[in-house]
Structure formats: structure tokens, C-alpha cells
Fold this sequence. Notes:
Elements: E1 7-11, H1 16-27, E2 31-36, H2 39-49, E3 53-57, H3 63-74, E4 79-84, H4 105-130, E5 142-147, H5 160-180, E6 185-192, H6 204-211, H7 224-236, E7 244-247
Parallel strand pairs: 1-2, 1-4, 2-3, 4-5, 5-6, 6-7
Helix pairs in contact: 1-7, 3-4, 4-5
Amino acid sequence: MELSGSVALVTGGGGGFGSATVTRLVERGARVVVADLDEAKGEALADELGDAVRFVRTDVTDDDSVRAVIAAAEDLGPLRVAVVVHGGPVAGRRIVDRAGAACPAGAFERTVSVFLTGTYRVLSLAAESMARNEPLESGQRGVVITTASIAGYEGQAGQSDYAAAKGGVIGLNLTAARDLAPLGIRVMCIAPGTFFTPAYGMTEEEAEARFGPAVPNPRRMGRTDEYARLAVAIAENDYLNGEVIRIDGAQRFGVK
């Protein structure tokens, strides 16, 4: 797919992975709608990157909100690329803690609602929009790139909600690609390992010293631009479909 002149949507576009991806898409000549709950970050990114970027406050747990941001993208032209990379709250608790108390099911449901159901919501509604596009010469109408985590394969202690949600995103990928194949819409998933983002709540140097040595090679945390470059490569390569790509420096999570 040729990105120059295409319209893209990035949910979580104001965050670490998202803003790096928006920047790379703009460099390729795409016009991008940034969808995020964080208005300050979204608007700052739009101001920084100029007329090629539009920010729309978006809640991925709400159908109307997602439909509104997709409509904003359609105002710019046919939506061809959707990157689903939003973050959200996690419980961060064992199923039963050392005091013998169970983690509330509501906390589990909240995480799944944001990371798994929110991903499905954006994927399905973006695909609905893409299905109305005229096919390109390649026969393709668009591509949706979701974001899982290697925790979806090797969830650590205290990650039951997050691992289940991201495992669901992984499980969704091939079925979605098969469902949407007759429409010429591809679906791919990226499963990052340990990447530094502001969500760590510490400096990059502190995070690197703590988490970097666990990565086999390169022996460091991932950089958000490395995620972004992979997302762009997926969008541009029509034969990538139905696959989950780990980007983790050969890391495999241990128990904790």
C-alpha cells in the first residue's frame, strides 16, 4: 500500500507507541487522525506535526466515540490504515494475594474492556469503513494493525487481566484476517516486549537499568520508533496478513 496521500487512524495516538507511529506515517505522506483520551498530548502532537494531523478525543470503550473519530478520518478521504495502540488501566494484582483476598472481577473486566473489547471495537468499525472504499489496484481496501504484548504469551505473576486481554488480541488476529479477507482488508498484530514509554513513571535511564538487562539482544529496552517502523512496514507490505509479529529482542518473560 502506498501511504502517501492515504488516511490513517491511530488510537492511543498521543502515547509513546502511538505518537511515534503517527510521526512515521506523516513522514510517509499520510494524513493521520490521532484518537486519544488525553487531550493535552493529542493536541500537542497535532500542533507539532501540522496540517497532516488532526486530533479527536476518543474513548475506545464507547461505540459512538469510535464512530465519531472514524467519521473524522473519512472527512479527509478513504480510511486505509488503522493502528490500534491505546493503553489503559490494569489491576496489577495476583488472582489471590498474599493476604488471601481475590482480585475483584470488576478490575479484570475493566482491563479486558479497554484492551480487548476496545481493540475489537476499533477493528470492526474501522473495517466497516474500509469495506466502503474503492479497492486499490492491488485489490486491497485497507489494513488494521492491532497491538498485543508478549505478556499475551508469557503472562507474569500479577498480570492475569492484562495477559488475558492481550492473549485475546492475539487470538482475534487470524480469525479477523480470515473474516475480512473477502473485502480486501488485512489484519496484523504486533506483540511488543519491554519498551520504554512514559507509562513506566520513571526516567528512561532508571527504566533501562532495571529492565534492559533482561533482554537478550540488543541488551536494552525497545524504542517506540522501532514499533512505529514495523507498523509502517506492515502497512506498506500487502502480503503481510493474519500474523502476530513479536518485537522483543528474543525476550521471554519469566514468572515475575
